Amino acid sequence: MDTIILGDGRLGRAIDDALRARGDRVRLIGRPPGGLDSHDPSTLAGADVVVDASRAESVAANVEAAVLAGCRRLVIATTGWQAQTGRVASTLERGGAAAVVAPNLAIGSAVFLRLIDEAARLFASLAEFEPYVLEWHRRAKADRPSGTAREIVRRIASHGATVKPEVAVIRAGAAPGMHLVGFDAPSETIELRLTARDRSGYAAGALAAADWLLATQRAPGIHPFDSVVDDLLAAPTAGRPIVTAA
After folding, report:
1. Residue 100 shares a structural domain with residue 17
2. Contact between residue 110 and residue 201 where contact means Cβ atoms under 8 Å apart
3. Partners of residue 135 on adjacent β-strands
4. Do 64 and 125 share a domain, yes or no?
5. Do residue 16 and residue 63 come from a single domain?
6. Where are the alpha helices (H) located in the chain, listed in sequence order?
7. pLDDT tens sequence across 180-222
């Protein structure tokens, strides 16, 4: 697989390491040269998959450049770009391209969100249990709350919670990410916690998303990471190793 990664920060480098570890051809590209707002499409030509691991404000322009370059498979690993969703979806559909997107591409995180779904469903009819969310990321992380925290709140609300979850945000140190979701009542508290120890889980999810796009032709537009996870969970365990990063 020939892959171009847009964004040479921590996440981009982690995905680059994971791709190289399994023998894929990969180019890691930083910001556009000369202070330009977008990449020259010619620099993105020839990629089977383009992975965006850049900044929120760059996502729409990066998708447009990739589609103009002829790429029809994208993985968007960047968060905080929801305001550009319409523009990105329109670009993909006009160009006949498909993109996998998620607030968090770690496979464990996707399963964690499903546990939140089930917990929210069970507690929806128990008004004495009030939901809350605590998330902690490195100081340099720009979006607050994180995309994962916003998705947790959305999922809890979708199950009819009578109280909107309180969200507490911590930005300190170098932690790659922690999310704690609780349901508190006068007599007891139940908590679910997800802690990322490094970025290899995000990288593994990005590779799984790229492989899912390459497995068969996908419909143009935006595809949720849940579709990738559905296929991973449905696959027979024998002879089907889970993608892992080095």
Report:
1. yes
2. no
3. 169, 179
4. no
5. yes
6. 10-21, 59-68, 85-95, 107-123, 147-158, 200-215, 225-234
7. 999 999 999 999 999 999 889 999 999 999 999 999 999 999 9
